[in-house]
Specification:
This protein has helices at residues 3-17, 23-38, 44-73, 86-96, 120-129, 172-190, 218-226, 263-266, 271-276, 290-293, 325-334, 347-362, 375-386, and strands at 81-83, 102-108, 111-117, 131-132, 141-146, 154-158, 163-167, 194-196, 198-203, 206-211, 231-235, 239-244, 247-251, 257-260, 284-287, 301-311, 320-323, 365-370. It has 389 residues and is α/β, with parallel strands linked by helices. It folds into three domains: 3-73, no CATH class; 81-190, Phosphoenolpyruvate Carboxykinase, domain 1 (3-Layer(aba) Sandwich); 194-386, 3-Layer(aba) Sandwich (Rossmann fold). The strands form three sheets. Strands 8, 9, 10, 11, 12, 13, 16, 17 and 18 form a nine-stranded mixed beta sheet that branches. The longest helix has 30 residues, at 44-73. 34% of the residues are buried.
């Protein structure tokens, strides 16, 4: 390697890590400098020794570089929800009621969630996402979605009336997730039914869920597994759980799925689906996956036997770790239960969620997978080392 190329490579790594390089990574950076400068001038045996003595540290550095590059390559954003009073809710309804051109009802696991909007695109995506509810059924929760010139993006929620106001939210993924969150709030409080922000598949009668913070690959691995014989899907993003006969029974939440445009780059089997889909500005589309995998590959429910939690920690060399139920429940709490769309986060609700996940994991074989490897390699680990398929 030339000295110029060495400097470019080192600069690339330093930029990915940021200007504040911790002491943990100064040693591998120093070894990298020494290795690159001297590799053409030292003997083979000395070079081999240097490689062996620095490999572990440099591998950790390289993983951190890859992780930072992935994060920098994606613009990660979020919204902040605001709890409002019933008086605020009534005032906002009066403000917006004259502009509602569309009214649609969705059946979300027995909850009637009503959409009120003046945006045709949102109305059409809503119809594609959810099973319809009869117009004669009174709504349990409501979503008001509208645009307001001169206003910032706002998400407001009245817990008493179960009404959410979404102002200037132009990402349909958030709209549908907030609808699911409203239904979850109702089911959690009134029926003891909990929700999980994750994917759920069935492998020849054995239910497996993949739970992860956003952007850590649960959708990618779900669609990868769905290609295999004997694998069927219940949900790719959100499912409901009931404790029946001392087992975790998972139920689907949506009629169709919301996929990324790049899914076919990883799994070529979905290329035709991507070609026919209508993607939004965020590179997402609501699609009927049955068209590719067949109707028999979609299930309404399954009994869970295993949970796979995903995380990305470039500084941890461990790829797969089996967790106890307490370890899994504690991990979920540290990552806000892997759900950025929870509308109510007070101590009462968090206590309910902690209790749920302790019982949830107590009935499952649970693994934690560090996704620092390339997606295809991580997928092989999940498929062969954990699922044994």
């Amino acid at each position: 390697m030339s000295f110029k190329r060495f400097l470019l490579t080192r600069t690339k790594i330093r930029r990915a890590l940021g200007t504040d390089v911790s002491k943990t990574h100064r040693a591998p950076i120093f070894c990298f400098n020494l290795l690159m400068i001297s590799s053409s001038n030292i003997s083979h045996s000395s070079l081999q020794f240097l490689f062996k003595s620095t490999f572990k540290s440099f591998r950790r550095l390289y993983r951190l570089y890859l992780g930072a590059a992935r994060v920098r390559g994606k613009v990660m954003s979020k919204y902040e929800g605001e709890l409002i009073s019933i008086e605020d809710r009534n005032r906002l309804m009066e403000k917006y009621e004259d502009r509602f051109l569309y009214e649609e009802r969705a059946d979300i696991y027995g909850c009637c969630i009503k959409l009120l909007t003046d945006i045709k695109y949102v109305k059409e995506r809503w119809e594609e996402s959810f099973y319809p509810m009869s117009a004669h059924v009174r709504s349990h929760g409501r979503l008001i979605v509208t645009q307001e010139t001169g206003e910032k993006l706002k998400v407001m929620y009245d817990q008493l009336s179960k009404t959410a106001f979404l102002v200037n939210v132009d990402y349909y993924g958030w709209i549908k997730s907030i609808a699911l969150s409203v239904a979850s709030d109702i089911l959690e409080d009134n029926h003891g039914i909990n929700s999980v922000h994750g994917a759920c598949i069935d492998i020849e009668g054995r239910g497996v869920c993949l739970i992860a913070p956003p952007g850590t690959g649960k959708t990618t691995h779900t669609y990868g597994l769905l290609r295999l014989k004997g694998v069927r899907v219940v949900s790719d993003d959100w499912f409901f759980v009931r404790f029946l006969a001392e087992e975790n029974v998972a139920f689907s939440s949506e009629k169709n799925f919301y996929i990324q445009a790049d899914i076919a780059e990883t799994w070529g089997e979905y290329k035709k689906l991507v070609e026919k889909a209508e993607f939004d500005a965020k590179g997402r589309a609501v699609v009927n996956v049955r068209w590719i995998v067949g109707k028999g590959k979609i299930l309404p429910m399954t009994t869970l036997r295993m949970a796979i939690l995903l995380m990305r920690d470039p500084e941890d060399d461990t790829i797969v770790k089996k967790l106890t139920s307490n370890e899994a429940a504690k991990y979920m709490e540290t990552v806000e239960f892997c759900n950025p769309h929870l509308l109510v986060k007070d101590e009462r609700k968090n206590k309910l969620r902690r209790q749920f996940f302790r019982e949830f994991f107590s009935r499952l074989e649970t693994y934690l997978v560090n996704i620092v490897l390339p997606p295809i390699e991580t997928h092989r680990v999940i498929k062969e080392e954990i699922l044994k398929i």
